[in-house]
């Protein structure tokens, strides 16, 4: 049975007009990855600080000071790192484009031979191979894009470094603030337990969202993230408790 636009197993319509409109827009940039990674790191690191300080049985004031300092310092650091990483990808793509443009100017026949061998490896032969080489090399922009993607494996990236960094920072602040909330609102002796429960829920939710990137079931991804996050927090708590005994705080 052929797929239709209303088929629930099909992510988008295959009507010719819908296909043309979708392809005209080009690939859509997604910042979900940046948000999820920022959220996980924010929840893990801030909760690790809270758990470690709580394990050392220090005051709520110290927990809040260290937690907030970590929230903004680490959040900015991660956002800056993500910004630089995305920008480096874009800069590298431009460098490869310039390299291929120079090669085409200096050695066009050598570059045509590269195209021929690339498509021959894909199964093209005879007149089909000759025609494919002619079509690709007849348009410089298309020629460069094919060479960059096929020779270097560097697909074009339209992601904005600024948006990627902003998404990471926002997610870090939002998710990383959760472990601090019980201490801000004076949960008293139950503050750490409340932080554990609330942060565990954040880990579970982020993990469920992360399943969009894979074929794993949402609950599998959620449990995996939950276990990783809580393990990091438990380790930090244990280190804080040990240091308390060693230094006699």
Automatic annotation (TrEMBL):
What compartments host this protein?
A: Endomembrane system
Classification via InterPro entries? Ccc1_fam (IPR008217)
Q: What PANTHER family has UniProt attached to this entry? A: FE(2+)/MN(2+) TRANSPORTER PCL1
Membrane topology designation: Multi-pass membrane protein
Tell me which UniProt keywords the record has, alphabetically. Answer: Membrane, Transmembrane, Transmembrane helix
The name under which this protein is listed is: VIT1/CCC1 transporter family protein
Name the Pfam families on file.
VIT1 (PF01988)
Question: Quick check: keyword Ribonucleoprotein in the entry?
Answer: no
Naturally occurring in which organism (per UniProt)? Hyphococcus aureus
TM annotation in the entry: 164-185, 191-209, 221-243
